[in-house]
Amino acid sequence: MAAGGLLCPCALLASCQRCSSSSPPPSSSCSPTDEFKSSSVVELMKKEGTTLGLTVSGGVDKDGKPRVSNLRQGGIAARSDQLNVGDYIKSVNGINLTKFRHDEIISLLKNVGERVVLEVEYELPPVSVQGSGVMFKNVEVTLHKEGNTFGFVIRGGAHEDRNKSRPVTITTVRPGGPADREGTIKPGDRLLSIDGIRLHGTSHAEAMSILKQCGQEATLLIEYDVSIMEVMDLPPAVCIGGCGKGGEVPLVPGQ
Ligand SMILES: *[C@@H]1O[C@H](CO)[C@@H](O)[C@H](O)[C@H]1NC(C)=O
Ligand SMILES: *[C@@H]1O[C@H](CO)[C@@H](O)[C@H](O)[C@H]1NC(C)=O
């Protein structure tokens, strides 16, 4: 397809890759690492004496900014389905971590009250494009919530800076959670609608709130990538072991 302006995120990715690989950098405004980051606010509730199950690396005395290095399975942070390993933590309950040492961050998180508000920053999910061997398919999945979540993390959504707008994308499917047990949804899939409410044009915060407010059972419309090879209706002659629908590429090029 033509490299039209409509495929904005990818066109931009391409332009920024060009930009960053050229030397010297043509302009300071083209910094792919910043340009494709977004942030959100994560609220966690914990009882006194319990921990979040959140391990943080980094600090001003360490190599690297504070970020999530582990989410303990079954812990409050993991079950919130709002954090991914690798997320940067900018602030805790409004306290800016920029100048904090590693031990100070650990101590802050340990002694924080029952309500923990984290400002997190992360790389935006990559954008899938139809065309080069990939096409999109949709599927409806009905899930039941547990702890008011379906067991996946979403990122992306519409952003006031158009360059940062992405489809609402599932980045993590929590092992053992509702989505994982149902089995259809995989990381990288896009969430198009929740009980018929379309998410096109909704921000990350709006999509999160729709997810929170929908019923205990909801039907999610999911978009996923399939390789063209899997969906082509090929004549039996080129199939080895039968051409099952959705089969695991049982075909070889006919000679
Ligand atoms: C934290 O402080 C630094 C400078 O000290 C500032 O650049 C940054 O925007 C602040 N971040 C937050 C989340 O307040
Ligand atoms: C979005 O990306 C385009 C192309 O790289 C750039 O010219 C423009 O300044 C960017 N807009 C913002 C708000 O960063």
TrEMBL record:
> What keywords are annotated for this sequence in UniProt?
Cytoplasm, Repeat, Signal
Q: Which SUPFAM superfamilies match?
A: PDZ domain-like
Q: Kindly list the biological process annotations in GO that this record carries.
A: neurotransmitter receptor transport, endosome to postsynaptic membrane
Ranges where the PDZ domain occurs = 41-124, 140-226
Q: PROSITE patterns this protein is in?
A: PDZ (PS50106)
Q: Signal peptide location in the record? A: 1-22
Question: A Gene Ontology CC term for this entry?
Answer: cytoplasm
Q: Which domain of life is it from?
A: Eukaryota
- List the InterPro entries hit by this protein, alphabetically: GRIP1/2 (IPR043545), PDZ (IPR001478), PDZ_sf (IPR036034)
Is Repeat found in the keyword set? yes
Q: Where in the cell is it found?
A: Cytoplasm
On whether Oxidoreductase is a keyword of this UniProt record, the answer is: no
A Pfam family this chain is assigned to: PDZ
Q: Which Gene3D superfamilies match?
A: 2.30.42.10
Stated name of the protein? PDZ domain-containing protein
Q: Which organism is it from?
A: Electrophorus voltai
